[in-house]
Inverse folding.
């Protein structure tokens, strides 16, 4: 089969490799859709990439089971359509026991290798897809699960003002989840086309971030600021500006890591006198993954407008370059559906 291999800085090649074989309790999955994530781009552009053996990135995967190994494979059958959860959590450690399996102390990061014709995974990491969830939609289960992990920690009573900073793929997922939770959603971005997509996905109000966004947010919130601010942009200046957009007794979620690393200038009177909660969020717990697939199944989140580019596996390097240059929204690597699959 063919697989992408990351050799080093900006050096991603597609090569012939051995077909995966299902071991005990494992399944081989023929990959139909694999999303390019900003974290893939950080691996791709990192100078350190050359320091390890060539490896296959890709962790936002959906496909079809083509082979089952021996042992307990549950009710999974060859031909089942599945989404792949790359985080193997133990369910028994201190963090799992307190509901924070995103920080499982025995986490197994499976080498799931999504930019390939096929991959092998333990069956316990696979979730069957509802008939109306496409492979492409299911490849968003992973980023959507990360978004849900953030929302579990955010108070959001009905009609509270939510400000989503950044209308990239992640911001557009936050927009829809905040709306599904009953929030009044304001989205800010510099790019008009991204704001247009936010409006199409249900955002109530849009703010052009290249103008006076603070005044615009105050005007939209009776001078109070937003009750919840979700920052999906990993730029310190943008995060600092977000502290000026939050209402008293509000909350700010820092969803994006900063690359390159940066420090924040934070006036401590914001968390103190204004009683603003500042939190972050990272990865997800298994229940977030399941909830993400249900949101896609029941149409509360629509990811079709987020897909701007589709590439065959042979053009995976082009997919990475497209994401690196922030062209469009989400790039997917997709395979043709074969006979007998749907
Ligand atoms: Zn991802
Ligand atoms: Zn654990």
């Amino acid at each position: 089969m063919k697989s992408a291999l990351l050799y080093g800085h900006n050096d991603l090649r597609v090569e012939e490799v051995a077909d995966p074989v299902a071991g005990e309790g494992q399944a081989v999955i023929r990959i139909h859709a694999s999303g390019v994530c900003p974290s893939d781009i950080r691996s791709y552009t990192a100078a350190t990439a050359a320091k390890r053996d060539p490896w296959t990135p890709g962790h936002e995967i959906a496909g079809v089971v083509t082979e089952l190994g021996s042992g307990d494979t549950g009710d999974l059958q060859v031909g089942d359509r599945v989404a792949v959860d790359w985080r193997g959590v133990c369910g028994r450690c201190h963090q799992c026991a307190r509901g924070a399996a995103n920080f499982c102390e025995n986490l197994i990061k499976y080498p799931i290798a999504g930019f390939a014709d096929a991959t092998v995974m333990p069956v316990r990491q696979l979730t069957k897809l509802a008939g109306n969830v496409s492979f492409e939609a299911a490849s968003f289960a992973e980023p959507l699960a990360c978004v849900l992990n953030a929302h579990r920690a955010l108070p959001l009573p009905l009609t509270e003002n939510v400000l989503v900073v950044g209308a990239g793929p992640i911001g557009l997922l936050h927009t829809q989840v905040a709306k599904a939770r009953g929030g009044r959603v304001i989205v800010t971005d510099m790019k008009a086309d991204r704001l247009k997509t936010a409006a199409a996905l249900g955002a109530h109000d849009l703010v052009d971030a290249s103008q006076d966004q603070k005044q615009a947010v105050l005007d939209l919130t009776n001078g109070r600021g937003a009750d919840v601010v979700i920052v999906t942009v990993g730029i310190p200046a943008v995060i600092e500006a977000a502290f000026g957009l939050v209402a008293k007794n509000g909350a700010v979620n820092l969803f994006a890591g900063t690359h390159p690393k940066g420090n924040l200038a934070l006036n401590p009177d914001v968390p103190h006198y204004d009683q603003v909660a500042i939190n972050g969020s990272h990865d997800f717990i298994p229940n977030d993954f399941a909830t993400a697939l249900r949101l896609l199944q029941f149409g509360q989140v629509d990811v079709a407008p987020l897909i701007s580019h589709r590439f065959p596996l042979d053009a995976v390097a082009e997919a990475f370059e497209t994401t690196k240059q922030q062209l469009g929204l989400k790039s997917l690597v997709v395979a043709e559906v074969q006979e007998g699959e749907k």
About this structure: The chain has two domains: 2-145+284-334, 154-280. The longest helix spans residues 141-152.
